[in-house]
Fold:
Amino acid sequence: MKKTVILACPTLKGELQTILSEEASEAVVYFLPRGLHSDPKELHSYVQNMIDSFWNVDRIVLCVTGCGGGTAGLRATTAELVVPRTRDCLDILLSDDSLSSLERDISGVYFTESWMEYSRESEIDLDRLIGKMGKEPAEDFLRNLYKTCNKFYIIDTGCYDVKKVDDYVAPLVKVLSGTVTMLKGKCGILRKIAGERFDEDFVVVPKGSEIPAGVFLKNF
Structure:
């Protein structure tokens, strides 16, 4: 069996660790710093440096997907690279047996426990804004920010208490006169990674080559 390491977005931590345990995977996981996804150039540089630093590994799985183009052009300098053809972590969580059947509301706002924690620490958290500017100004600010985006989805991956996320999202949904829908997150891509089943949903880059552009699912 090939010696495998996985570089993953921290928003996938709960799901990835659970599925790796279920599959009895021996892969070693490194979670990237939170926030890299907001800067594709910084993501590219950070991940390339990590790839360059490995030795005595056969395969590096990049569980950070397309990420705004941040993974295109990464070089397989120390081992074979494997990357899913997904656009982002939402695709990973919503994936099933094949990416060809993936469906997603592009106008929706999605939450899991990880994204709830990220939102809670952000500058646009409802409670944080109310404490900073007062209730009515905070609500007006969020209505202007979200505008027509008032459809919220909670992805139930089976790895956390969805009620806790629903309770967090509910006040914001009320402010925006929105709706909340529960979706099943089957995490098909993560299950394939844990089982080392790299099919047409993945790009496999031999050592010495680089990840080509245009191999990921088309943007919306």
